[in-house]
Amino acid sequence: MKKIYFIRHAKATQKECENDFERDLNERGKKDLALMCDRLKKHKVRAEAIFSSPAKRCVKTANKMADAVKFKEKIKFVDIFYEASVVDMLKFIKGIEDSFSGVFIVSHNDTITEICELLSDAVIGNIPTCGIFCIEFECQFSEISEHSGKALFFDYPKKHKNKD
């Protein structure tokens, strides 16, 4: 079994004149990220590889999540993730080493939502910021294709608002 945890970066600043690539996490993003890291720890999620867009908001999200799951390897920053199409993302996934059984992919919308809908048996509509959508596959990464995966869970910060 292979698992891919598709993670949309945490909420970022919205300054109009700022370079999009350099947008940092805002206060809500930092709080949401802490919550989702706690969720990963609680459920004892592990990753053997973490792939992330090199955009600042993704780098910060990936680093915090790596710490949360006690990931000891280097995060691999993938340039194409910044403006990847679904085709780009699928090609990348098919090239992931088959020795891994669980990987994180930290990236951007709309592609992150679209690839999850393409590969799973679910209709999501939108993965919100800091959302995690996990898909399980009964094949090698190289054999992954349209609707070949099963959605295991979909978690995001607003699911836990007003819960103590």
> Distance between termini?
34 Å
The poorly predicted ranges are none
The level of helicity is 25-40%
Number of helices: 4
Shape, principal axes of CA atoms: globular
Secondary-structure element pattern, one letter each: EHEHEHEHEE
Spatial arrangement of strands, main beta sheet: 3-2-4-1-5-6
Portion in beta strands: 15-25%
What is the typical, i.e. mean, pLDDT?
A: 95
Rg, Å, rounded: 15 Å
Task: Give the key terms.
164 residues, six-stranded mixed beta sheet, 29% helix, alpha/beta, 6 strands
Task: List the SSEs and their pairings.
Blueprint: E1 2-8, H1 27-42, E2 49-52, H2 56-68, E3 76-77, H3 86-94, E4 102-107, H4 111-119, E5 132-137, E6 149-155
Give a structural overview.
The protein has 164 residues and is α/β, with parallel strands linked by helices. Helix content is 29%, strand content 20%. The protein has helices at residues 27-42, 56-68, 86-94, 111-119, and strands at residues 2-8, 49-52, 76-77, 102-107, 132-137, 149-155. Strands 3-2-4-1-5-6 form a six-stranded mixed sheet, with helices on both faces.
